[in-house]
Amino acid sequence: MPGSQVGIGLSGAGGRYFSLSALYLFIYYGFGAFSPLITQYYNSISLTGTQIGLISAVAPVVSIIAQPMWGLFCDRFQIRKTVLILTLVVSGLVGLFFIGTSAFAFVFLLYLILSFFQSAIIPVSDSLALGYAKKNGLQFGDIRLWGAVGFALAALVTGLLVEKLGPSVLFYSYCFALLIAVLLVLRVPDESQETPRFRVGMLTGMRDLLRMPRYLLFLLASFCVLGAVNANNIWFSLFYQEIGGTVAGVGLAFLLFAGSEAPFMKLAGMIVRRWGLELTLLLAAVFGAARWLWYSSAPSTTLVIAMFFVQGISVGFYLATSAQFVRENTPASLQVTALAIFFSVGGGLGTMLCNLAAGWIKDSYSTLGIYLFFGIITVIGIIPLVMIKFGPWKQRSFDEDAEVTQ
Predict the structure, then answer these.
(1) What would the pLDDT profile of 40-54 be if each residue is shown by its tens digit?
(2) pTM for this one?
(3) What angle do CA 66, 70, 73 make, to 5 degrees?
(4) 71, 82, 91, 195: which has the fewest Cβ within 10 Å?
């Protein structure tokens, strides 16, 4: 009966949306258990600021090579779900090896391995979600916001557990969340079969992407903006304690900060429809720069918590719209590659620079100096965003994608 078929179709679509949302919830729950509190583990094994900076720079350095490699591999062979399952399983299991480890060299090696596999998780999952959102007329932010919810919950719950049971709890939480995510990937739709297949050489594909002015400028902006955002996840714990906070307070702060991203990711869709992607991204960067510069003035913990929603505007808006900007300004057949390069530049090169500089600044000055640096580099990142909005380069249409697939 026609009515029955419609009901089944709606049920199937609803189930796929639920699976994608839950996938983001658990992936970012794992990240929320790991990133904000890993510094507590470093402190427990007596690492110096310089050593923390070096370890924190491993992931960005690895991602510079690994993320484009994973992306090109997925685009050529159209095996996004297989790659995502593999990297989730290996990342989760490697996380457990940190437990009981105290030697700097061994921690460095483990982080190197973890970073290689973890670097594929976000660009591949974003590609799956973007494909589903485009096919079903949804905003990517409606799905991505569940990642913010997961990150916020993990930061609070794991922060409380770490204070009571010790840093090893964060590794168990990280592994558990990623393994749950594996089960959800099996139910997630993959629209890659409907995407033009990537038929050019790998280096040619990367060269073509880097010849697109709007995409290249966006990479430069994200190098600065996301570099500071990602590095903040590592250094905020020390900053918050320096201005008088506690470890449990760090968990509460991340709950409010990351939790505020979810409603603003939802709001981002409305802002984009009214004012466009470029102005939404520019607004996010301006709020981000103002936030870091304010942090460098040593505000009270009460004010930092009270102004939690600034993260929603800055980080929530940027993360909800950045992947959409990449999708709309690059060929569909190179989507995973374009996303991977974007993450390797923002989450890789930019984060590497910010973490290395932050480690040196901590040892030479203080954590307040770290946030002054974050503010300055974010201001620099605003410049290419202004050029994208007001420059001569117009958005191209990549619907046909003929020049890449022929």
Answers:
(1) 788 888 888 778 878
(2) 0.68
(3) 140
(4) 82
